[in-house]
């Protein structure tokens, strides 16, 4: 399953784990490049100095493969997205608590393949646990079920089955790499892909911007008050300030992008600086993930079969 | 040879405001041209028009031609003012590859072009570096590389050195000049005519009321031509700081001289350190920003905070202004300035306590306006604290903003926004004034206002800390000042007196 055009080792998970990625990929690409002396040489005057790598660098997945971590690090973004989505859809088949518990148990068995840093994973799952509790609690309060506790347990577990795989898998998603794959494998239009990738990349800038706006408001005496109402008002007005700033920033970034050839049909005819290879690990994740996603449905069918025969 | 020609450009907003009136401009192949003009004269609009990237909601007349024909997208390369806006990818290599990708180059050519652009822009931090970890100078060179990678015939740069200290600016400037070479046309927008004059063939000056008021080579000996009074023309000394009426900026809470703390001491820091750790799902390794910095701010004195890009100036200033807590060391205000329960560390003060004591002018104040009109922006802090709003009104008069009192702060020109930010920070009478690079990229009249206000705040009894790399400002404020706090790599370095 070696994709066309990929550098040696890119298709094979096991060899690239043990090689230092930069070496083979870099030199291979340089060899290709040296044969290709084109008219661009005149353009930029200055030559490329010694020791500067002018070849195609390794992809994000190749870099991850070369490092340490759970097995899912070998996978590209598309199977991550697909499995997260399938698991969410599969959860709709959950009808009773034991189906959810069974699916959750299997998902739990898969955790070591996905979780590298246990504390980071727990931090990530905390909101999910709170959501599950609140869903269960609201089912108890609604109370129109003859057996409210079991109904609450089913609802809470269903939510966990629905969100748990996505919450953990999507942590491995690299936005730039996802853009490369969406555009090259699924033919999503370049304009859409670049817009989304750049927007995601600017979330960091948004966090910095929040800090600046919040600091400026605090030092002007407009900090959050003591009570919860005051805090909510403060958050609302700060968010508004941030929104104004973000919209203005978006205008400036789109100008910068257009100035670099993104305007006009550049966006739709563009190429992608890194390949989007489909590797063996991707197939494994897709198949395994589909099986896990199908589990609630299988349990439901199996349960119905058992009750009809007894 | 590509020759860029602009004829009869007039740009009007949908609201009927004229941004640019009747501008002609030529940039021949290999020619280096500086475009200058007072704040609000429409320099950035001219650049956008030349690049064919005017906003959609403006009316534009006139004609841009490259060798007598309309330019193809990518032939005219525009580098926007703030490198944070110019960079679009998380790693340096992928960012520079953006232009070649848009041009449809295949992978080996793309990466070869990336390597060439990095070499031409003298970007040396490596293509795998994460953009957010770069210093200001590296970031500016990477942004330049991104523009060069598209291989434009004409290079348009909007204030490429205004955010940088003198040494870094010189490196970036020579990278720009080398990259332009003999074949490419170069058009740079900057207030700093003196800095660029030795390196450019012509200086074109836009008038405040439209048109081109000057288009000729600069010679050091000749006097500045008419219409260029607001520009940093070579050989013209810095303007006199603005005269501010005495007592206008007297602190509302004066730190009474207290035995044992030194006379008029406002803030004392000992062994200040700051280690940044990034919260979030994908945490980053901790970075030491400051270590073991000692300093004392005194009432009535101005303390400059100097140092190269990335030396930790902004971080130190945000500690002094109570916006962040030091991770080591102690920072204590004078007992007279203590907040509730005797708290003396600025970061422990409540928002109101902080506002009653500290005036803060951030590096980019235009991001942080809090009110919908100029008058309300100046009055905000005083009205929260119940202090006299008259000072704000008087400050607007002194700074020449009274005519815009009902305007939205975002509608002001860059120089007016800077004045407004200072007025907002000073209107409530803070005992401690902290300003971060307050003169960067400002024309002479705004510069005079900034220098005058800072000097007046110190004269009237506030303690003033100013982070700056502006040698003119340091010079103008010298006799109000104490020994500068010079940072190097987050540590206070010794300067030869």
Automatic annotation (TrEMBL), chain B:
Belongs to the ABC transporter superfamily. SUPFAM superfamilies: P-loop containing nucleoside triphosphate hydrolases (SSF52540). CDD domains: ABC_cobalt_CbiO_domain1. The lineage of its organism: Bacteria, Bacillati, Actinomycetota, Actinomycetes, Kineosporiales. PROSITE patterns: ABC_TRANSPORTER_1, ABC_TRANSPORTER_2. It comes from Kineococcus halophytocola. GO terms for molecular function: ATP binding. Residues 4-234, 275-495 form the ABC transporter domain. This is ATP-binding cassette domain-containing protein. Keywords: ATP-binding, Nucleotide-binding, Transport. The keyword Transport applies. InterPro entries: AAA+_ATPase (IPR003593), ABC_transporter-like_ATP-bd (IPR003439), ABC_transporter-like_CS (IPR017871), ABC_transpr_CbiO/EcfA_su (IPR015856), ECF_ABC_transporter_ATP-bd (IPR050095), P-loop_NTPase (IPR027417).
């Amino acid at each position: 399953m070696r994709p066309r055009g990929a550098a040696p080792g890119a298709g094979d998970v096991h060899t690239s784990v043990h090689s230092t990625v930069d070496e083979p990929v870099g030199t291979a690409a340089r060899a290709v490049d040296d044969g290709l002396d084109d008219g661009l040489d005149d353009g930029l005057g200055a030559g490329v100095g010694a020791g500067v790598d002018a070849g195609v660098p390794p992809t994000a997945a190749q870099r991850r493969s070369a490092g340490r971590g759970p097995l899912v690090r070998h996978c590209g973004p598309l199977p991550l997205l697909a499995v997260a989505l399938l698991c969410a859809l599969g959860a709709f088949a959950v009808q009773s608590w034991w189906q959810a518990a069974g699916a959750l148990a299997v998902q739990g068995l898969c955790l070591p393949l996905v979780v590298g840093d246990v504390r980071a994973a727990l931090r990530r799952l905390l909101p999910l646990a709170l959501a599950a509790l609140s869903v269960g609690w609201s089912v108890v309060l609604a109370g129109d079920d003859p057996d409210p506790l079991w109904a609450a347990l089913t609802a809470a577990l269903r939510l966990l089955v629905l969100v748990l795989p996505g919450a953990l898998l999507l942590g491995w998603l690299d936005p730039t790499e996802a853009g490369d794959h969406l555009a090259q494998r699924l033919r999503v239009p370049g304009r859409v892909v670049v817009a989304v990738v750049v927007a995601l990349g600017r979330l960091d800038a948004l966090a910095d911007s929040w800090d600046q706006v919040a600091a400026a408001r605090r030092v002007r005496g407009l900090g959050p008050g003591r009570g919860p109402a005051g805090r909510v008002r403060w958050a609302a007005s700060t968010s508004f300030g941030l929104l104004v700033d973000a919209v203005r920033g978006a205008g400036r970034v789109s100008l910068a992008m257009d100035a670099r050839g993104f305007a006009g049909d550049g966006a739709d005819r563009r190429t992608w600086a890194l390949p989007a290879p489909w590797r063996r690990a991707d197939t494994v994740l897709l198949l395994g993930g589909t099986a896990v996603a199908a589990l609630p449905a299988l349990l439901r069918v199996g349960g119905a079969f058992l009750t009809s025969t007894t | 040879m590509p020759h860029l020609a602009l004829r009869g450009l007039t740009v009007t907003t949908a609201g009927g405001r004229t941004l640019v009136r009747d501008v002609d401009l030529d940039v021949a192949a290999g020619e280096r041209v500086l475009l200058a003009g007072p704040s609000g004269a429409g320099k950035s609009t001219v650049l956008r028009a030349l690049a064919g990237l005017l906003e959609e909601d403006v009316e534009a007349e006139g004609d841009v031609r490259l060798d007598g024909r309309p330019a193809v997208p990518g032939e005219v390369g525009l580098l926007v003012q703030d490198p944070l806006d110019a960079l679009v990818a998380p790693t340096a290599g992928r960012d520079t590859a953006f232009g070649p990708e848009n041009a449809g180059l295949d992978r080996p050519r793309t990466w070869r072009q990336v390597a060439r652009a990095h070499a031409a822009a003298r970007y040396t931090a490596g293509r795998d570096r994460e953009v957010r970890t770069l210093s200001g100078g590296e970031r500016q060179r990477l942004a330049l590389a991104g523009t060069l990678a598209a291989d434009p015939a004409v290079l348009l740069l909007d204030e490429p050195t205004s955010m940088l200290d003198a040494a870094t600016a010189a490196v970036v400037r020579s990278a720009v000049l080398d990259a332009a070479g003999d074949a490419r046309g170069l058009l740079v927008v900057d207030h700093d005519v003196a800095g660029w004059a030795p390196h450019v063939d012509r200086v074109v000056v836009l008038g405040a009321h439209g048109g081109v008021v000057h288009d000729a080579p600069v010679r050091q000996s000749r006097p500045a031509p008419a219409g260029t009074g607001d520009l940093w023309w070579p050989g013209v000394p810095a303007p006199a700081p603005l005269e501010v009426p005495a007592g206008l900026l007297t602190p509302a809470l004066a730190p009474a001289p207290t035995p044992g703390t030194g006379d008029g001491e406002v803030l004392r820091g000992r062994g200040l350190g700051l280690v940044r750790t990034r919260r979030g799902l994908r945490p980053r390794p901790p970075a030491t920003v400051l270590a073991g910095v000692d300093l004392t701010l005194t009432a009535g004195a101005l303390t400059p905070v100097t140092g190269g890009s990335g030396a930790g100036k902004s971080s130190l200033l945000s500690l002094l202004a109570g916006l962040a807590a030091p991770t080591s060391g102690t920072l204590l205000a004078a007992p007279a300035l203590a907040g509730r329960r005797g708290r003396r560390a600025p970061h422990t003060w409540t928002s109101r306590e902080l506002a009653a004591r500290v005036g803060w002018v951030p590096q980019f104040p235009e991001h942080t306006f809090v009110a919908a009109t100029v008058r309300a922006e100046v009055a905000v802090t005083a009205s929260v604290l119940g202090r006299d709003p008259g000072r704000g009104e008087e400050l607007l008069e002194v700074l020449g903003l009274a005519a815009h009192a009902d305007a939205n702060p975002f509608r002001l020109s860059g120089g007016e926004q800077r004045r407004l930010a200072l007025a907002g920070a000073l209107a409530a009478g803070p005992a401690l004034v902290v300003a971060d690079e307050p003169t960067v990229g400002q024309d002479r009249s705004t510069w005079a206002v900034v220098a005058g206000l800072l000097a007046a705040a110190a004269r009237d009894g506030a303690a003033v800390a100013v982070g700056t790399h502006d040698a003119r400002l340091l010079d103008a404020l010298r006799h109000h000042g104490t020994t500068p706090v010079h940072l190097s790599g987050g540590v206070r370095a010794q300067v030869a007196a």
